[in-house]
TrEMBL record, chain B:
CDD domains to which the protein is assigned, alphabetical: TM_PBP2 (cd06261)
PANTHER family on file: INNER MEMBRANE ABC TRANSPORTER PERMEASE PROTEIN YDCV (PTHR43357:SF4)
Record's GO cellular component terms: plasma membrane
Species classification: Bacteria, Bacillati, Actinomycetota, Acidimicrobiia, Acidimicrobiales
Name of this protein: Putative spermidine/putrescine transport system permease protein
Organism: Ilumatobacter fluminis
Subcellular location: Cell inner membrane; Cell membrane
Automatic annotation (TrEMBL), chains C, D:
Coiled-coil blocks: none
Name under which the protein is recorded: ABC-type quaternary amine transporter
InterPro entries: AAA+_ATPase, ABC_SmlMolc_Importer, ABC_transporter-like_ATP-bd, ABC_transporter-like_CS, Mo/tungstate-bd_C_term_dom, P-loop_NTPase, Transp-assoc_OB_typ2
Sequence segments annotated as region (Disordered): 1-25
UniProt key word Transferase: no
EC class of the enzyme, as a word: translocase
Pfam entry (one): TOBE_2
Provenance organism: Ilumatobacter fluminis
Comp. bias intervals (Low complexity): 7-25
SUPFAM superfamilies (alphabetical): MOP-like, P-loop containing nucleoside triphosphate hydrolases
PANTHER family: SPERMIDINE/PUTRESCINE IMPORT ATP-BINDING PROTEIN POTA (PTHR42781), SPERMIDINE_PUTRESCINE IMPORT ATP-BINDING PROTEIN POTA (PTHR42781:SF4)
GO cellular component, one term: ATP-binding cassette (ABC) transporter complex
EC identifiers of the protein: 7.6.2.9
Length: 381, 570, 394, 394
């Protein structure tokens, strides 16, 4: 079991077991922590010049790709609310080195997608963070640029974070959050989400939401389905929808209902659940025995921007140690970089490679519109 | 020269509204037929697909039923309130008016949060109901959505109704009573038809709000209630623009259809028999229903009971209008990071955080600046046009008035999408100016409405008398007209300001990082993660607005010019 | 005098069974008080004091009583209490001896005609008129027949299918009257029914109202602030002053023998002279610019200021003073011909400086007037000089 | 006759230099036509036809001319054209010989008083009055002085600092008048200035207006539909009928020698008999129920229907027929005492059935009336019988 009773558990991935591929990659940072000099040397030998011992490109190197004569005053980063406060400070060094301010445009995912699509060709957003399932459709609709593999720090990305449609920004893992006051036994299965014991006190992600896809994928597999057809899971939710108190667009949105004792159990991102506990939400988090699917916050670059070189420089910074560390510290998200060093004493999810379940995001997002139409009909009504 | 004046004065505002409302509409139309967008061959296939699909039809029916119910319920609860306000004087009138307009003064997202805390299973309402053994969660139900929509509809229904009621000739119902009609019969047969224009204006506004609303179904619907605007937004986020456009057009057509039908009904009510039937039919038409009503005449008038019921009604209504606001105020000073209905202790932490630089200060200032500039421009445009509309009789005058109101009729979601697509086509620079343009367009209908009525209420002879005294036209306007319409101008500005200051649906799609308005940020923040800081900024605004509005209402009588605005001038 | 048919004090038929009250006016006991108001008092707002005080009034079967008084004196309030639209603060209203003070309007059987006509714009003329019958559950054919009959009576036969918007102001007023009359009301209440109409129509309609009221014999209260209107239509006029009855009587009574300065000046034009009460060998007499000494009215002491009031038409052109008449001498300032009469302005020298008096002469005397600026003499008989305590300034 | 000062046909002072026109009325050439309207025509809506047709009118310096006519006859339209608020469709308006037809209002120097007063509620009484002077760049002290003077003149000295809301209707009307007069207008235009006021105030103010107008000698047009008002204030009255001038003359002219049935019935009450033109030995005479044969007016053929109109006050109580008088016999139906006169209704047997006539007698004769229902005789002289072609039914 990968469930932790203490939110601030041991640092991630003490295990060396190589059950799954992502696990291999998640465990790599630890290796590197122990072998920092070696890695630095290794990095040095790659074509990209490396400025420090961490194996990441130095800020001077990054800044050099965004010289002052082409540097805009600012880059607009569109993402969820509250991120400015959490990870904003980790951009200060970039601003200092390049003179480029990072401006946060906080918005709801739907609004972000609509805006990007509407501005397609003449974007006001330079870089956006979207769930992994939304990256491909954006790219296929011509809204975003293909990823540039030549940018600094790209090499060190985990394979999952190297996509045509964008750049991985952080790794997340889904599990179950529950209120131990009402859910007295630690849930062990995704099926517990639909238990009669919790009827009227269950919250479920609505669609489209990456947590929704992830949870549907798990339930679907338990129903004997595969990721390319989520019908069985959608129908299962449809049959059980009476038990579900609310379908939420983001897990933090359900906090008031959790705090009020109305919602007892719901799927959540591991890191988001820990952050929620920090705010005083009376929950625990667990990865069920079936394991927890991993997903990724993805950086996408709207096509047609004048600021592309500096945007890429910023992404290089984003996938470097400082920003990845901020994600880990504030949101307990896993890093996308094989060079990343998890700070001492910090739990990030995924923290146990044995719990990692890989789902087929590409297929699920390709089928997204159909799944949503089905969801509308079967669940929403 | 005299003949050219109206064109010169009305022209600018017509162009702005034309570009701002009709432009987006045309863009939507082109998308929906696949002329723009990614569809292989243009045609009506999207429409046939949507109309042939029982799911879409069902969703249209649900949206329609929701909006109609909201409209009817709003009318039913607003009528007694409007009568009550109409009868009251002095401070009572001020307080009741402020009570009624309060729901308009609070940010939509925060208002919704307030309602969630009131209506959720362990919320305020149930904590009151539990002792008497009833418990009901409205969250995630159409009823809950309807309730919240009624909350914000009530002010928009009361104001036009007040205008009708204030002009009611009480003699009409007195005459009926003297002829033997029970007060209830007199009310239904004579008072209601007489206030039909006010009922119509209110019904139209609340219907449009009900059918176009986006935020409320998301918050209160809890992901289990689909309405057309949600569906439209969902289509867009899955890159099905054309389908979104077709849904928007169908929604718009539905709104126009219902509004026309409402107009018909109201005219029937107000006009009685058709010309034909009264010329051809029997002198007296059979009236089985009212023959039955005559039996009521022997019932008592229940005067005592009525007084009692009216008191209870006022208390319930006050609670209904105030409750979500009280909850927001509570959340703003309650020592809990997660907004709840229960009390944890007093803190000013959230209030302080709200006005910090990294709180809402920047957005607050931006919204303020935007609203001021939008109202300034809107005022210049609508002042000129309203004066011309009120003073001149020219062909197409009614059409111009209707046209200037058209942004009100377009469902918010459709208008927002239309705007974005429109800007996309125009390839304008993203900027404060885009935002400003959209805001001017949405404030103009409100401002024009108030100003036209205000000017019409000013005796044109006052201006003539000044001309006879030797004053040139501009001098007349400056020294006589403007001072006389002061309170109307003030009210128009207040309405315009609030409209702009609370606009989110369109702004969110236009906003960039440094042009994120307060409501957009609140919406982004609160829909992601409800926080007491969002409640705190709203609480500050509620208090500020009340502190500004109450004295101004006392001084200028905003309510009466707002009431004028609701007047139906047919 | 033929038109003075009223008898103010009529015994109430207090014992009539209220449930069996006759629907048609004609069936009631003749000469009985159809309407009896006793001790009626109304206060709207405590601090403003009462709007009506101790009103007692009995209106006989078939009688038309006018309430005449300045704006705000409480005329409408009184009428609205009778109609049951507002409750009195004290006192009672009885119709046919049945106390209706707490009976709601719709069970009082009163007809009402408002100044604003108050027709229902969405109903046809016939529907307007038939409404009261509908409320009495009269069959449809019968309703149509009786509405048409009533419209015929008010001179609007054939207008059944119009809507009020298609009628002139005068026609609307007549529909309003028909609507009030068709229910055969016990009491007909008219609140300034003519004041929104123009002068010619007003005269025409007031005569019509009077004719119809006589024909139907319906007991009527007519509210007006126009003295000529009141005089033209009434059997009896009640002059109200500040919520109290100042005087009740026929038009002749009020015009010729007003009891107070208020009644005199409200019921017609006056020419006024000031005077004082003096002692003339033990008798209190009034001395004034008029020369002619008059007996002082009772209740006044020597030295009190009085006002001598004369109707402008009580002056006769030419000077022929005797014991019982005074001659006023002055210069003709101005003369206006008003059709049926001529109004002249004469400047006289009074004790307290020169003053103008406005005198009204039969129009034919107009031709006998001297030139403007020439001396003129006017005679007035002592009987036509009314002496009142000088009212305290408003 | 003293009040009949006007001479309708006055020569225009067409050669006066428009730029040097005198600011004060008194300085103008006496007797000149201050205002001259020629061939004025106005059509608002083509399909409704003209509202004014071929109006010619010259108003002399200091003259007060009333426009009298029924509602909708175009009185206000004419006035508003003179003020420059609307443009005429044809014809011209000249003030002091200067054609102002296309001059905007603010450069015409006219004073206007509206029925609704149209005071500016946001300005004090003094500011209202002084506004016109401000527009003329008069210095502030001077403005204050002249405004106060004018207020004094209209009897409102000391009211400078009030706002219009604090004045009664009559006081407001006087402020409005002061505001119009203070600019020493070439022409003063009054559009039913009194119709919103009550009867007593109306009489008082019309006399005030007349007095002030005389004192200042300002050329004035007074619009009204109240014949008594027109007669009381005017030097000359213009009767308008459907946008045309029906007759122009003094009050006496219009009352005693009306040129048409319209003018006769609009300027006073009439008692009407119908008759026909017959041939009496080559002369066309009128036969009627009245008995007395009258000469037929010119322009009528034998067999034409005519109406014989008599002023109700031209009847004398009692029968004393001679060659030149007719006696009407009937029964007294009703008598109403109206203060200065008495109105009686007499039923007579006319050829086409019994009819009622309404006759007005001097009030004192009221006392000599027989009982209601008794026979009565009335005499009318032939000179007082006006014969007109019967108007075609409206
Ligand atoms: N509903 C009310 N509340 C308070 N005061 C009232 C009300 N109705 C009338 N009054 C006051 O009562 C007094 C008498 O009013 P009422 O309407 O009876 O006068 P009126 O004689 O009919 O006057 P008018 O000739 O102007 O119609 C007035 O001073 C009026 O202001
Ligand atoms: N602006 C307008 N447009 C069209 N028709 C008009 C306009 N103003 C007046 N009329 C019409 O012109 C005619 C004359 O109107 P006007 O106002 O001059 O009449 P009036 O004699 O002043 O009547 P009243 O006594 O009712 O004031 C009426 O038939 C009226 O309907
Ligand atoms: N506060 C962090 C917000 C990130 C939320 N990500 C949710 C979507 C992941 N697929
Ligand atoms: Mg009244
Ligand atoms: Mg007019």
């Amino acid at each position: 079991g990968g469930d932790d009773d203490e939110p601030a558990a041991e640092p991630a991935a003490e295990s060396d077991t190589e059950t799954t591929e992502p696990e291999t990659e998640t465990t790599e940072p630890e290796t590197e922590t122990t072998d920092a000099t070696e890695t630095t040397d290794a990095a040095d030998t790659t074509e990209a010049p490396s400025g420090d011992a961490s194996g990441f490109a130095s800020m001077e190197e990054i800044a050099a790709t965004c010289p002052a004569d082409i540097a805009p005053d600012k880059l607009v980063l569109s993402t969820w609310a509250s991120q400015e406060e959490l990870i904003g400070p980790s951009f200060d060094s970039f601003t200092e080195a390049t003179g480029v301010e990072i401006e946060f445009l906080a918005n709801d995912l739907g609004d972000r997608l609509t805006k990007m699509a509407a501005e397609s060709g003449s974007p006001t957003i330079d870089v956006a963070i979207v769930p992994i399932n939304e990256a491909a459709p954006l790219f296929e609709n011509g809204v975003t640029e293909a990823a540039d593999e030549t940018i600094l720090n790209y090499e060190q990305l985990l394979d999952v974070a190297k996509m045509e449609a964008g750049y991985g920004g952080s790794i997340i893992q889904f599990g179950i959050a529950y209120n131990p006051e009402f859910v007295t036994e630690v849930p062990t299965s995704w099926a517990d989400l639909l238990s009669d014991d919790f009827a009227d006190h269950i919250a479920f992600p609505t669609m489209p939401n990456s947590g929704g896809y992830a949870t549907l994928a798990m339930l679907n597999r338990m129903e004997g389905g595969t990721d390319d057809d989520l019908t069985a899971a959608v129908e299962l939710i449809g049959e059980n929808s009476d038990k579900i108190a609310t379908f939420y667009p983001n897990s933090p949105a359900v906090e008031p209902q959790v705090a009020a004792g109305e919602v007892w159990i719901y799927p959540d991102i591991g890191g988001a659940a820990l952050a929620s506990m920090d705010r005083g939400n009376p929950i625990e988090f667990t990865i069920p025995e079936e394991g927890g699917p991993v997903g990724m916050n993805t950086l996408v670059v709207p096509a047609g921007s004048d600021h592309l070189p500096c945007t890429l420089a910023f992404i290089s910074h984003f996938i470097g140690q400082e920003v990845q560390e901020a994600w880990a510290e504030k949101l307990y998200y896993g890093s996308v970089s094989s060079n990343f060093v998890v700070p001492e004493g910090l739990t990030v999810y995924p923290n146990d490679p044995s719990t990692i379940v890989e789902v087929d995001w590409a297929t699920m997002s390709a089928n997204g519109p159909d799944t949503i139409d089905l969801w509308n009909r079967v669940v929403v009504g | 020269m005299r003949r050219l004046a109206p064109a010169g004065l009305i022209g600018p505002v017509t162009v702005v509204v034309g570009v701002g409302a009709i432009g987006p509409l045309i863009v939507l139309l082109l998308y929906s037929f696949g002329i723009l967008g990614n569809i292989e061959d243009p045609g009506t296939q999207l429409y046939t697909e949507i109309l042939g699909d029982s799911y879409f039809r069902g969703t249209f029916v649900r949206s329609l039923r929701l909006a109609l119910t909201v409209s009817i319920v709003s009318l039913v609860v607003a009528v007694p309130l409007a009568f009550r306000i109409s009868r009251s004087r002095g401070w009572a009138r001020t307080l009741l008016t402020c009570l009624v307009v309060l729901p308009l003064l609070i940010n939509i997202v925060v208002r919704n949060l307030g309602w969630v805390l009131v209506l959720s299973p362990n919320g305020v309402l149930n904590s009151w109901l539990e002792p008497i053994g009833v418990s009901q969660s409205f969250l995630g139900t159409v009823t809950g959505i309807g309730l919240v929509l009624v909350h914000v509809s009530v002010p928009l229904v009361v104001l036009p109704l007040l205008a009708s009621i204030d002009r009611l000739d009480p003699a009409q119902s007195e005459a009926a009573r003297a002829l033997g009609a029970h007060p209830a019969v007199a009310f239904v047969r004579f008072t209601l038809p007489a206030i039909a224009p006010g009922l119509l204006a209110g019904a139209v506004l609340s219907f449009v709000i009900g059918i176009g609303s986006l935020v409320t179904p998301i918050f209160l619907g809890q992901g289990r209630t689909m309405v057309i605007p949600t569906l439209i937004v969902q289509q867009i986020s899955t890159f099905r623009w054309e389908r979104a456009a077709a849904l928007s057009m169908l929604l718009f057509a539905l709104v126009v259809g219902v509004v026309v039908a409402m107009q018909r009904i109201s005219q029937r009510m107000a006009r009685g028999r058709t010309e034909r039937s009264r010329r051809r039919g029997p002198i007296l038409r059979p009236r089985p229903l009212t023959d039955a009503a005559a039996r009521l005449n022997h019932l008592p008038t229940f005067d005592g009971l009525r007084r009692w019921v009216s008191r209870v009604y006022l208390v319930v209504m006050t609670a209904f209008l105030l409750l979500p606001m009280v909850v927001v105020l509570k959340t703003a000073v309650d020592d809990s990071q997660i907004p709840t209905a229960s009390w944890h202790g007093f803190t000013t932490e959230w209030l302080q955080a709200a006005i910090r630089e990294d709180g809402y200060r920047t957005q607050l200032l931006l919204s303020f600046r935007l609203a001021i500039v939008a109202v300034g421009l809107g005022l210049v445009l609508s002042l000129a046009a309203s004066w011309a509309i009120a003073r001149y009789r020219f062909p197409g005058r009614d059409a111009v008035v209707a046209f200037l109101m058209s942004p009100l009729l377009m469902p918010q979601a459709a208008l927002a999408v239309g705007f974005v697509l429109f800007f996309l086509i125009l390839q304008t620079d993203p900027s404060f100016e885009r935002l400003l343009f959209a805001h001017v367009v949405v404030t103009i209908p409100y401002m024009t409405r108030v100003l036209v009525s205000t000017f019409e209420n000013i005796d044109a002879r006052m201006e003539e008398a000044a001309a006879a005294c030797g004053a040139r036209p501009l001098t007349v306007f400056r020294k006589i007209t403007l001072p006389l319409v002061r309170s109307g101008v003030f009210t128009a500005c207040l309405f315009g300001f609030l409209q702009s200051f609370d606009e989110a649906a369109i702004s969110v799609l236009i906003a960039s990082g440094d042009t994120t308005t307060l409501p957009v940020k609140l919406m982004s923040d609160m829909s992601f993660q409800p926080s007491p800081v969002g409640a705190a900024i709203s609480a500050i605004l509620i208090v500020a607005v009340v502190a500004v509005v109450v004295p101004l209402e006392r001084r200028f009588g905003i309510s009466s010019s707002a009431v004028l605005a609701g007047r139906d001038d047919d | 005098m033929a038109i003075d048919v009223n008898d103010p004090a009529v015994a109430p038929t207090a014992t009539t069974d209220p449930t069996s009250r006759p629907a048609v006016a004609a069936a009631a006991e003749p000469g009985a008080a159809r309407l009896r108001i006793e001790g009626l008092t109304k206060t709207y707002v405590e601090k403003d004091g009462p709007v009506l005080t101790g009103i007692d009034l009995a209106v006989a079967e078939g009688e038309l009583v006018s309430l005449l008084g300045p704006s705000g004196c409480g005329k409408s309030t009184l009428l609205r209490i009778v109609a049951g639209f507002i409750d009195p603060s004290g006192g009672s209203v009885a119709i046919d001896g049945r106390d209706v003070t707490t009976v709601p309007t719709h069970r009082r059987n009163v007809g009402i005609v408002h100044q604003s006509h108050a027709l229902w714009p969405h109903l046809t003329v016939a529907e307007n008129v038939a409404f009261g019958l509908e409320m009495r559950r009269v069959k449809r054919d019968e309703r149509a027949r009786r509405a048409s009959e009533m419209l015929e009576l008010v001179g609007l036969g054939g207008y059944e299918r119009r809507v009020p918007g298609e009628l002139s102001g005068g026609q609307q007023q007549r529909v309003s009257l028909a609507r009030a009359l068709v229910i055969e009301p016990d009491v007909l209440l008219l609140d300034e029914p003519l004041s929104s109409l123009d002068a010619n129509l007003r005269v025409y309609l007031r005569d019509e109202i009077r004719r119809i009221q006589r024909d139907l014999g319906v007991t009527t209260i007519f509210v007006t602030h126009d003295r000529e209107e009141a005089m033209a239509v009434s059997d009896r006029i009640v002059v109200l002053d500040g919520g109290r009855i100042a005087q009740t009587g026929s038009a002749v009574d009020l015009y010729r023998t007003p009891v107070s300065h208020f009644v005199m000046s409200f019921t017609g034009a006056t020419v006024e002279f000031s005077g004082t009460v003096a002692d003339d060998r033990g008798r209190r007499v009034v001395h004034s610019d008029l020369g002619l000494p008059c007996p002082a009215p009772s209740g006044l002491a020597v030295g009190d200021d009085v006002t001598l009031c004369i109707r402008p038409d009580d002056f006769v052109l030419g000077g022929s003073a005797g014991d019982e008449a005074a001659v006023v001498r002055g210069r003709l300032v101005d003369a206006a011909f008003l059709g049926t009469s001529a109004e002249i302005r004469v400047a006289i020298d009074a004790a307290d400086g020169p003053t103008d008096v406005l005198v009204r002469l039969p129009a034919r005397q107009h031709e006998r007037l001297p030139d403007v600026g020439a001396p003129i003499e006017l005679t007035v008989e002592r009987d036509h000089v009314h002496v009142f305590a000088t009212p305290t300034a408003a």
